[in-house]
Design a protein that fits this description.
6-stranded antiparallel β-sheet, about 40% strand, elongated, mainly beta, SH3 type barrels
């Protein structure tokens, strides 16, 4: 990952602003989609300069991205691969088979940020944001709140994450004070250890191969 810095006199997508060719390539078709989303985002950051520095993809370490999500002994639901790093190009450690359990240690969410613009009075959680500037939407943290990025700072606010959620007959004003211009794309990796077997690695959760613990149930 390479920090994206302000470019004032250089054309966008040159020098340090060019997307690394391997960026999100390991995600297969998701990677190609991410690159299509990423190119206009790179141009936007280079030209409008939200921040002094933002790493793309943004990585939220230790994340467990839903309400009451907890790490611990998780059930294996589907056959899935365990990799040495949170990267599909890294070495294959082992294969997990359904009906067993695995120790989920921690996780991280890799995000291609979404973009939103303010269209009405912001929610009170967004009091530190500048309504005249676009907002980068990062990872979901639970209870309707997401991390966002603007002016070099990360804030946690209530904000819409998809284009469709504010197209309802009665959209929720707590989230729909913005128009989502580009939806964020996230990939959740979980660090696991074997139970009764000595191995450790990373599992991609895109297809739900493991059943997380819901500490509220």
């Amino acid at each position: 990952m390479r920090p994206l810095r302000r470019a004032v006199h250089e054309p966008p997508l040159r020098g340090p602003h060019a997307a690394p060719p391997q960026l999100f390539e390991s995600q297969g078709h998701c990677g190609r989609t991410a690159m299509r989303l990423l190119l206009p985002l790179l141009i936007l950051i280079s030209s409008n300069s939200y921040a002094e520095e933002l790493q793309i993809p943004y990585v939220s370490k230790g994340a467990c991205p839903f309400e009451c999500c907890s790490y611990g002994k998780w059930e294996i639901l589907k056959s899935t691969s365990v990799y040495s790093k949170p990267d599909l190009k890294s070495a294959l450690v082992t294969k997990l088979q359904p009906s067993g359990k695995i120790q989920a240690v921690t996780g991280e969410v890799h995000v291609i940020p979404g973009r939103a613009k303010v269209i009405s009075e912001p929610h009170k959680s967004a009091e530190n944001l500048d309504p005249s500037k676009e907002i980068l939407i990062l990872d979901y943290v639970g209870e309707g709140r997401s991390r966002v990025f603007q002016n070099g700072k990360i804030e946690t606010v209530k904000i819409a994450r998809t284009k469709n959620e504010c197209k309802k007959a009665e959209p929720n004003w707590r989230y729909c004070w913005v128009e989502v211009l580009q939806e964020p794309e996230s990939h959740w990796w979980v660090n696991v250890k074997g139970i009764g077997a000595k191995f450790e690695g990373w599992v991609l959760m895109d297809e739900g191969p493991l059943k997380p613990i819901d500490s509220c149930s």
